[in-house]
Amino acid sequence: MKLVIALLATAAVATTAFAADNVQKLPSGVIVEQIKQGTGPQPTVNDVVRVNYRGTLANGTEFDSSAKHGGAATFPLGRVIPCWTQGLQTMKVGGKAKLTCPAATAYGDRAVGPIPPNSDLTFEVELLGIQQ
């Protein structure tokens, strides 16, 4: 019985540690939750990345996705909102993450399309590849 309790306690601690390792809060306030760990290289700010993504407002309303534009998006990582620049650099190719972006790391006090000013945003991003 003691062995079973010890194994359950060890499993609970390991699960908690694993879950904590999957969530990182960056100094800017961006929260990166690794949904699926990638195994490839990590991009730098100077790279061009290819991603699938889905963006939602705090209330869950989808405002954009790569699927709406016909598939994966490719862009220079240094030329997007700070949340993406920072968050994607924590990922490896093949990985998928949820980025929680405070308004200051997204579009700030600007309204952009269906995104109201001062909006916190959430993105699910799958890093498909890196081009130099």
From TrEMBL:
<feature type="domain" description="PPIase FKBP-type">
    <location>
        <begin position="46"/>
        <end position="131"/>
    </location>
</feature>
<keyword id="KW-0413">Isomerase</keyword>
<keyword id="KW-0697">Rotamase</keyword>
<keyword id="KW-0732">Signal</keyword>
<dbReference type="InterPro" id="IPR001179">
    <property type="entry name" value="PPIase_FKBP_dom"/>
</dbReference>
<dbReference type="GO" id="GO:0003755">
    <property type="term" value="F:peptidyl-prolyl cis-trans isomerase activity"/>
</dbReference>
<dbReference type="InterPro" id="IPR046357">
    <property type="entry name" value="PPIase_dom_sf"/>
</dbReference>
<comment type="function">
    <text>PPIases accelerate the folding of proteins.</text>
</comment>
<feature type="signal peptide">
    <location>
        <begin position="1"/>
        <end position="19"/>
    </location>
</feature>
<comment type="similarity">
    <text>Belongs to the FKBP-type PPIase family.</text>
</comment>
<protein>
    <recommendedName>
        <fullName>Peptidyl-prolyl cis-trans isomerase</fullName>
        <ecNumber>5.2.1.8</ecNumber>
    </recommendedName>
</protein>
<dbReference type="Pfam" id="PF00254">
    <property type="entry name" value="FKBP_C"/>
</dbReference>
